[in-house]
Write a structure and sequence with these properties.
10-stranded mixed beta sheet, Jelly Rolls, about 210 residues, 3-stranded antiparallel beta sheet, Rossmann fold, 5 helices
Length: about 210
């Protein structure tokens, strides 16, 4: 079963809203390494921690911080992708294949949606989870069981509309059902200490409220 994975101690901090809730903050405090998308560096320093590496096109970090952290700056000027993807690729290059992403939501909604949609792409190469102040998103490329608790709020998002979904231990079950719009799998609820989501193919996101 898939829990909120505490052993995912490579933290990738994006430049969205900095975490405030206890669970994502605990991941920062226990991290083995924190990889910052360049603009997130200042907020991490305000929190009292320093980055292991800073990755991006480096257009969102001050000259003062560039000078201070020059040995751990890794500039990637590629304009065909965003800093979050550049940072994930950086982790892959270094063999850090279990990643928790923080700070990837909030601020601009278009950035939030883009970052969430990228999770299933990352999942083809690494194990990844994205934590917000409200819950955890995990990408799903095959059938899986998830740790839960009765009453936990669950939402399922299909990124491939032809995918067939079957669920077990949710209040509103799905039986070989397609989700043709993002709202259709939202606001479900677990009935047990675990639930199962079966898919025949395709890509999905699963959200569990803390």
């Amino acid at each position: 079963m898939i829990p909120i994975l505490q052993n995912f101690k490579t933290i990738l901090l994006a430049d969205g809203t900095f975490p405030e809730q206890e669970i994502p903050l605990s991941f920062l405090q226990k991290a083995d390494r924190i990889i910052c998308c360049d603009g997130a560096t200042a907020n991490l320093l305000k929190f009292g921690l320093e980055p292991h590496s800073i990755v991006g096109d480096l257009d969102s970090i001050s000259d003062t911080l560039k000078e201070r952290f020059s040995p751990i700056l890794f500039r990637n000027p590629d304009q065909e992708t965003n800093d979050l993807t550049k940072s994930v690729r950086f982790c892959i290059e270094h063999g850090w294949n279990e990643i928790t992403i923080l700070g990837a939501t909030g601020k601009r909604e278009d950035h939030t949606l883009g970052n969430l949609s990228l999770l299933t792409d990352y999942a083809e190469k690494v194990n990844v989870q994205l934590l917000t102040d409200y819950g955890v998103f995990v990408p799903q490329l095959k059938s899986a069981a998830y740790e839960s608790y009765p009453g936990q709020q669950i939402s399922i998002f299909s990124l491939t509309p032809a995918t067939l979904f079957t669920t077990h231990n949710l209040v509103y079950p799905l039986k070989n059902k397609t989700l043709t719009s993002w709202w259709q799998g939202t606001l479900n609820e677990a009935t047990s200490d675990h639930f199962t989501l079966e898919i025949d193919k395709g890509k999905a996101l699963v959200f569990r409220k803390y």
